[in-house]
Design brief:
mainly alpha; Multidrug-efflux Transporter Regulator, Chain: A, Domain 2; about 5% strand
């Protein structure tokens, strides 16, 4: 992992994406689904995240990906979630491997672990199903 040089109070969505190893669209979707995840916006309207929000994202990721909760199940668990006080610890970006698959002529999707891709596809499917119900 690559260390960030200075302690930051706020992180951009691209930095949070690297820290949590989640795609930016997943973070945006989770913002719309989980009311506890409500990052502030800067003047340009971009989300800016604090350490507390990043820890919440990592907890949501654990609930959905490791403990296999549904979105609704994770929402119920989060009702009793008590965030840790900010310990002031420095977060780390997840470094890209030195020999990336794209550099070797492999497609970009080859970099994404299969189980992560599966989890993302399941979330997208649920989102589309919920959207279909709302539209009908």
């Amino acid at each position: 992992m690559k260390q960030i040089g200075i302690k930051k109070l706020y992180y951009s969505i691209s930095e949070v994406s690297k820290i949590t190893d989640l795609e930016q669209y997943v973070l945006r979707y989770w913002e719309s689904e989980f009311e506890q995840l409500n990052p502030a916006k800067n003047r340009a309207g971009n989300s800016i995240y604090t350490n507390k929000e990043i820890k919440l994202i990592l907890y949501i990721k654990k609930l959905l990906r490791e403990e296999r909760y549904t979105i609704e199940g994770a929402k119920q668990v989060l009702l009793s979630y008590m965030p840790d006080t900010d310990s002031g610890e420095q977060l780390e970006l997840i470094a890209e491997p030195a020999s990336s698959p794209t550099a070797q002529g492999q497609p970009q999707a080859a970099k994404v672990p299969e189980n992560r891709l599966r989890g993302d596809m399941i979330e997208i499917k649920k989102f589309l199903e919920e959207l279909l119900v709302r539209l009908t």
